[in-house]
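User: My collaborator and I are trying to settle a disagreement about how two of our proteins should look. Neither of us wants to argue from intuition anymore, so we agreed to look at predicted structures for both before our next call. Could you fold the first one, then the second, and keep them clearly separated?

Assistant: That sounds like a sensible way to settle it. I'll keep them separate. The first protein:
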Amino acid sequence: MSLSALEDHLHAPRGRGRLSGGPHTGAAGGAACGDLVRLTVALEADRVVDAGFDASGCGAAQAAGSAAVELVAGAPLLEAARVGAEEIAAALGGLAPPKRHAATLAADALHRALASAAAADAELPASAERTLVAMSGGVDSAVAAHLALEEGEDVVAVTLELWSDPANDGERSCCSPQAVAGARALAHAMGLPHLTLDLREAFRREVVDDFVREHAAGRTPNPCVRCNGRVRFEEMLALADRLGARRLATGHYARIHRDGDGPLLAAAADANKDQVYMLARLDPEDLGRLHFPLAGRAKPEVRELARRAGLPVADRAESQDLCFLAGVGKQGFLRDREGATSSAGRRAGAPRGEIVSVAGQVLGHHDGQRDYTVGQRRGLGVSAVEPLYVLGKDAARERVTVGPRSALATTAVGLEDAVLHRDADRVDAVKLRYRSEPVRCRVEGAPRRGTHANLSLTLAHPVDGVAPGQTACLLAGDRVVGCATIG
């Protein structure tokens, strides 16, 4: 009797129970539908030498796990990385919509397993033509991949999974499980192998925990700068090494300038999209392996390139939220993580702290200094004859000081955790916020290049609302020659 492909995999499942408990296992499902697929792979150098699966729930989930094993066992890693839900469904003779989710689960589980194996065990021969492209699923990264393909590069796509929380709006987050699945589908549609890096633990430790601590201390951190400098690029470059890729390309708007001392970040051609501030913590030693193909292009041109290439994300709106705040907002996120102990000794609904004038007069109350930022005007909850701005915060006393805008102005800025890529006498300007214009300045004491626990800046003219915790991007013309945290 002739069996259908689906029935064949149900009657003679490939690799069921094999490699169970192996180190490189991915799982998907197990929630509302009840179906769960686990895939395990064993990788040696550049090949998936074995694979196995376990599944529970409907028959389609079990068959999809078996089909995924058959597709990747013995395959080169980059060929296995081309396998998605479409290929798994096709191997089962096609799946009707009610059963289609089984192929999606198997693909998700497979790629989690491949990601773990690739990050730990991949050893592909070095290739002068191979480029690893960071793909978020948006138009900028898609065009970066498209341009690399047009250059004749052997392109591999990678997407980072940084945060997974049911409370978040995964569709608005660039690094959620939903975003990973979307980026993978886009990469496969472009004919690219796709890998995922699961960096959720490192991201929580290095970025989210720091974000919570800094706000509790009365500061205003910049998590994107920290993520780029301490998580994202380091891990992607390590993967590029394992894949034998000579460079890592991203869809950031930035240039790389080389002088006699080596490469430096430099401003992009499109000033409205320039992202060097967000990349300011990158190690210059890594810049030689980075490629920013959008450096000389404006955003409308990038969208037009995507339309001409038939990329489905050509008109996709940009995400404006921090990935771990999407759908919950900063205030809600921080309150959820403060815990019940933060309210000890305070009756339910009671205000948390005082809003005071420069003279110490109590003008009102608030529910947490972490809801305020130096320089903030709106939403203070107090009124006066002239507009009031947040001048400072005392986290230990939960006190927010407000006053006139004139009291915000300063020409002296203290810096912490500073690194200079060139001697300080080269610094002629500083960006104190992402969207702010550079301010002419000098670094006091003319320190040499290297790391410094503290530095002092003198600004050429007064600036309002310099917020402790934000990043100071030190410039020489349009080049980044240093970076620090405002103290």
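The second protein, kept apart from the first:
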Amino acid sequence: MLSFVCLLAWGRPAAAQPAPSTPPQADAPPAEGADGAVAPPADGTAADVPVDPDEAAITEARRRYAQGSEFYRLARYGEAVAEFSEAYSLWPNPTILYALGQAYEGLSEVNRAIETYQRYLDAAPAGDLRREDAELRIEELRGLLAIVHVAVNVPANVFMDGELLGSAPGDFRLYTGRHTIEVRADGYESQTGTVTIAGGTERTLTFELQATPVAVVVEREPFRFPRPVFYAALGVTGASVVVWGALATTAAVRARDYNDTPGRTNFDRQEARDAASRSNVALGVAGGLAVTTLVIGLLTERHQAGAEDEDEPPPPMVTAAVTPLQGGAMVTARWTR
């Protein structure tokens, strides 16, 4: 409670500061938190405010400091960190840094607590009685740290529990416990290792990163038939059509003779049927050859070698596909530029 009264008094010069009302006990950090952190004593020796924020910012900073103190009292250290951080951004008072360091201790974020206490020592005056306690806290917290040597075959970034630590190879101070260390480098596959460390110890982690396989894309020119192949297919198809026409004519003549001749025999009927069957087979072959010729024509090179004009735009690319179906086939074609 006395600490918050002092915080109110440091907002502006004494001549312009009205006498603060006595805040409730929950408005300041408790004398001792769940993690043993000691609240700043009300000695009135804190440094002057480095900047002169306006009255509205000071009022908002006090409100957030009081809210953070209440969160700290309830051991809700994450919310306390958020409130203290916002209060310090509005009003850079060293007392807020001291409280923020205590909140980081509650979260067991040792490195951040040490950094925040050090920032407090850099900002607070030499006569501040909290300096001695902050120095003791830093010394005790450093005893909880272990040194991890990260060795890697290429320059890489080191992440601890998903948070960036720095560059490797290098040494890192980690707090006691079990941690997941991940090493990442551009062009290499990342590697992950798990380490369990105790305070004051040293461990070495070695990583051998492997280069990321490069996908090789092979671009090929679209397949094209030479023009003689198309002409040959066209000739065979034409010949099959001629054969089918001859057989169809023969079948028609035999059928007419069979129908017009009195006294028909079974031999005449069978002969007419055979002629019709041969005509149907020839029709199927001619149809198949026609489809094949069409596909070959779609995939045939349009220009002869050496006859292309550099100024002439390339012809559209034609792709075709034949899908077998029951009793036939489906031909699809696509023109693209």
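Some points you might bring to the call about the second protein. The longest strand covers residues 317-325. The chain has a mean pLDDT of 76.
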